[in-house]
Amino acid sequence: MDAWPPYEEYSLTKLKLASVADILERELETMTKEWLKRVNLIPELTDIPLSDLDRTAHLAKLYSDLISRLRLAEDVESPISVAAAAHGQIRHGQGYSASMLVEESRMFQVATFSTLHLHQNELHQSQVLSDVTVIADEVDAQLVETVRSLMAAANRAAPRSEQPAP
Hints:
By secondary structure, the chain is mainly α. It has eight helices and no strands. Helices cover about 65% and strands about 0% of the residues. It is globular and about 60 Å long. The protein starts with 19 loop residues before the first helix and ends in a 9-residue tail after the last helix.
């Protein structure tokens, strides 16, 4: 009787583990498509006629900020996102409200977490919870900056009589 081949030949292929930041960077196009699919199901958002490119133009920059933050130490405070501020100004010009920005941000998180769920077997499990915390904090910080920017643009555009008193 022939001897069994060495155990290594039967072992499962070792998965190369990746960081959350690496997966988000690699799956940017997938997340953008997922985000757009979900946003297109929200009538309040689709009532504003935009091309897919105009609707998604901000995502790459917001994801870049998120990925950069994930690569820093988790206790680092989020710097102000220039991309989020620009997004608020652009959306104001497109007729968005603050609640519409909240919906977009919600879909940003859903698309992000859905992607991570699909790739959970590739993740360093010991790091996932702290990375999810960073993601939630960064997305919320981006949302705050986007809404601030939208509101500032709205205040600049409003006639003096409609502007709130300082």
